[in-house]
Fold this protein.
Amino acid sequence: MSAPDNRIPLAVGSGVTADGQGRYIVGTLNVSGGSTPTSGGPLGQDANAYVLTFSDEFDNGFQTSKWNDHIWYESSNPTINYKVSNGSLKIWPQRDASGNFFNRTIDTDGKFSQTYGYFEAQAKLPIGKGTWPAFWLYAHPGNDRPEIDIMEAYAGGGVDSWWSDANLHPINYGVTLHKANADYSYHVKPYEAKLRDFSQWANGVDLSAGFHTYGVKWEPSGITFYFDGQQVGSKYWDTEGYYNRPMYVLLDLWFGSASGTPDHTTPTGEGNSYEVRYVRVWQFK
C-alpha cells in the first residue's frame, strides 16, 4: 500500500468524468446512505455470474482460521486496537506501550488467496490526522509483488489536500494498481483513479459518517473498481498482463503518507474505528 504517485488516466464509468490530469469527478453517484447487497452476488452485479468463495460477516468473533493480525514482515503488536463485535471488525488508532501510534493489518495471507473474481467490503472510515485505512489485495513472496488498492483514504491531509474536509474527515479515497520491479524497488505502475471533489459532487458525503461498499472486479483482461455498486474506474490490457497471480485480502489502519503524522489531536480508541461490516469474495462461474 503506497501513497499515490505518477498517475495516468483510466476509463471511467457512468456518472464520472475525467479532468485529463489523472483525476476523476463524481457527477451523479447517489451515495448519501450507502448500500447493502440484497442478493447473493456483488452489489450491482449479476449474482448468477458468480460463486461465493470467501466471506466473513464478522458475526462470530475474530476467526483466526481466516485472518492474521499482522503483516508478514512484522510481529503482532501486543497492544490491542482491534476486535470483532456487533457484526463488525473494528480497528482504531491507539498508542502502544512506548506511546507511539502503530500500524495494524488484518489479512488472509496463507489462509485465503484467489486469482481473478470480485472482491468487496463494506466499511466506515476513521477520522483524524495521520489515519490511513485501506482495503487491498497483495501477493508475495517473489520479485513481482502485484498490489491492487481497492480503497485507501487519507483523512489527515486537510482541506487543501482534497482528501479531507477542514475537520479531517475523509471525503475522497483512492484506488491504485502497483507493481514492483525485479530488484524489489517499488514503483507505481501508474494506473490510478481517484474519486475527487466528493464534497462538491456527492452532496458532501463524509466517508466516516456511514458505511459504503468498495469493490473490484479483477479479470484476466483488466480491472474495474466500484463504489456503492457503481463503476468509478477501470484499466484493461491486450494480453493477460501482470495481475495474474493469487492475491490475498488485507484490511489495515496505518499512519502517515499523504495523511501526515498522527499527533495529540488524532482521536484514539474504539469510537474512531475503521469499521468493516463484511468482506466477500466471489469467483466467476
User: Anything to note?
Assistant: The radius of gyration is 18 Å. The chain has one helix and 16 strands. Residues 3-32, 182-203 have pLDDT under 50 and may be disordered.
